[in-house]
Amino acid sequence: MADPKGFLTTPRRLPPRRPVDERVRDWNEVAAPGGLLPIINAQAGRCMDCGIPFCHEGCPLGNLIPEWNDLVSRDDWLRASERLHATNNFPEFTGRLCPAPCESACVLAINQPAVTIKNVEVAIADRAWQSGYVTPRPPERLTGRTVAVIGSGPAGLAAAQQLTRAGHTVAVYERDDRVGGLLRYGIPEFKMEKRHLDRRLEQMRAEGTKFRTDVDVGTDMDAAELRARHDALVIAVGARARRELPVAGRELAGIHQAMEYLPMANRVREGDYDRPSISAEGKHVVIVGGGDTGADCLGTVLRQGAASVTQLDIHPRPGDERADGEPWPVYPKIYRMSAAHEEAQELAASPEADVDARVFSATTVRFEGTAPDAERPHGGIRALRLIGSRADGRSGPDVERVLRADLVLLALGFRGPERDGGLFDQLGLELDQRGNLARDASFATGADGVFVAGDAGRGQSLIVWAIAEGRSAAAAVDRYLAGSTTLPAPVVPADRPMTA
């Protein structure tokens, strides 16, 4: 420990964000440039160097958090980068996108604000790139074995990088026109600028990983033929089957899934279009869903210049502190304020704004719209009717509201991998009871040489779990091909987050 009393004498500090009125006018990341470095050494020095560091349990990657906290507090950025990359292929992604269950499990968090682990992580990653510490690591020799990876999200990319470095020849197949999956088209630019993704992909190409875009395996290419051409196959297609809201009026024009809306905004940023086909500009918007995807929609809507916006959450407002039923070190359900919510809250205080950032205990009962016409054969959305709900999610009898809506975005989460196309049938794969791809304890399916990594087998989860699964599946594939492996395997399919 650089400062044995750091956790007692140094208060928790977060880096500054750019002013709201500035950042909602562009798509750059919300963090103020250079805001971390002046504070990060002292924040890393708050780490207690615990005898039993529970932050390791909170993080499925098993990140060596006390080690790189100590190194950052001593200004040893090279060794900190080495220790961070020893367990995490993409810390610049997790440092920006992960909700940091490691911080909830921090021992200091028992009775004080936790160490800002996530900020230390992203500071190390960014410093490593700036200092040239991150370089390609091609294998010393090739094994002569080939592996196909279907899907280029965090699980697929992690598996591909690990297998490439083990000496296998790896090709990643992506159905979209660019590599990255939801990292590319699902995560808004203001949360993670795509230059971070592109930079890491260039490292992977330099190491030898091949990428094939615009290939929808199961539709454009027979999955069984792809398996026959390779020694092993990893399926990492994510859990992109969207949850629906089956209420009256759902067929009205102007109601869209979040994953129809967000990718179009990202494609404008990529330069594909001048304007998105679905835009919130000048519209009264209602977002149904209170999770991270809903917050991503909220930030995007604000930047597109909506006339008004309301986000609905079916659950009651969480408390500000851990509930008795959610003891440390589990990840608690507490009230959290994302950057997008901060923006909406500040804009709501403006007299000319029409923003109601979050409405809790709200159940949508039906959509109301205009009559059908030649342009809109199903009619167009005009309003959303909701009623209050109790803590158990059931409708309450007394509270009813009608919200004006020209655009409704459904951000209700996902229910497993998409069933469209012939991928599953062509490989003879089965689904488990939760609707995910069935696999055994070594990530293997019932088809010989076919493995499943990430949300396709786990269900909707966090980016840090996807990377951990990609690393573990790579170890399983390497063992299948070579008889043994030295690749790390931080999780098994049965592992679950620490929750009450």
Automatic annotation (TrEMBL):
Q: Which residues form a coiled coil?
A: none
Alphabetized PANTHER family for the sequence = GLUTAMATE SYNTHASE [NADPH] SMALL CHAIN
Q: Which named protein is this?
A: Glutamate synthase [NADPH] small chain
Keywords, alphabetical: Amino-acid biosynthesis, Glutamate biosynthesis, Iron, Iron-sulfur, Metal-binding, Oxidoreductase
InterPro entries assigned: 4Fe4S_Fe-S-bd (IPR017896), DPD_II (IPR028261), FAD/NAD-bd_sf (IPR036188), FAD/NAD-binding_dom (IPR023753), Glut_synth_ssu1 (IPR006005), Glutamate_Synthase (IPR051394), Helical_ferredxn (IPR009051)
Please name the PROSITE patterns in this protein's record.
Answer: 4FE4S_FER_2
Gene source species: Streptomyces malaysiensis
Q: Which domain of life is it from?
A: Bacteria
Residue ranges occupied by any 4Fe-4S ferredoxin-type domain in the UniProt entry:
36-69
SUPFAM superfamilies named among the record's database cross-references: alpha-helical ferredoxin, Nucleotide-binding domain
Q: Which GO terms describe its biological process?
A: glutamate biosynthetic process
Q: Which Gene3D superfamilies match?
A: Alpha-helical ferredoxin, FAD/NAD(P)-binding domain
Annotated Gene Ontology MF terms? Answer: iron-sulfur cluster binding; metal ion binding; oxidoreductase activity, acting on the CH-NH2 group of donors, NAD or NADP as acceptor
Q: In which pathway does it act?
A: Amino-acid biosynthesis
